[in-house]
Specification:
This protein has seven helices and eleven strands. The protein has helices at residues 19-27, 51-61, 79-83, 110-114, 116-131, 139-143, 147-167, and strands at residues 4-7, 34-38, 68-72, 89-90, 93-95, 100-102, 172-175, 181-186, 189-194, 204-209, 212-217. A six-stranded mixed beta sheet has the order 4-3-2-1-10-11. A five-stranded mixed beta sheet has the order 5-6-7-9-8, with helices on one face.
Length: 223
Amino acid sequence: MPLVFVVSDLHLGSSHFQCSAFNHFLEEIPADSTLVVNGDMLDRPGHRLPDQPATVLEWLKEPPNGIRTLFVEGNHDSIEELAEYGVRAVDRLEFRDSSLLVTHGASFDSFVVGHKTFIKLFRAFHNLRVRLGAPPVHVARYAKQWGVFYRIMCRNIRREAVQCAKSEGFSAVTCGHVHSSEDVVEEGVRYINTGSWTEPDTMHYLRVDDDGMALCRWGGGPE
């Protein structure tokens, strides 16, 4: 099978996007590979992108050297919103040769879906904290400070993703959404979360080739 790379949660347009690191990552992708952007490529669709993230978007839309890019929608960027940027996205991808399901993971986030009022209050509190002078951090990084809430969210997404993959005959599933990398086997299904590109310590990618799958940290080797 052709060499495949999977990343998630770039959040182009966010001041927390690690643009320089991601550009270096793109430079290292071999010719004729496939790059999958697994949701939340954009941070706020409809808003003008600064010059550097806009350049990244143009690269992703028309990559060089025979590289193919595929896009999966996230909770920040729907299929319809991405189409306005000239990007054709799908709700999920299936790589049957490697028995891998690729989906952003937001659809498995039953905690957030079932607690919308709490999430609104959480975001309001986060914004107030910044206005009062606290150092700005990505909202996902702030969420990690709420240990119980964050662990429940990660656990629910992992469990639901594994059940979905298992019921459809996949031996592996990769998600994003929670901005935290993970590579575990649960109920016979390998669950891989590729983290995000909004924090230096969460920049990961999944590499898939004929030898299998490896979750890699940018700047480091397989984990």
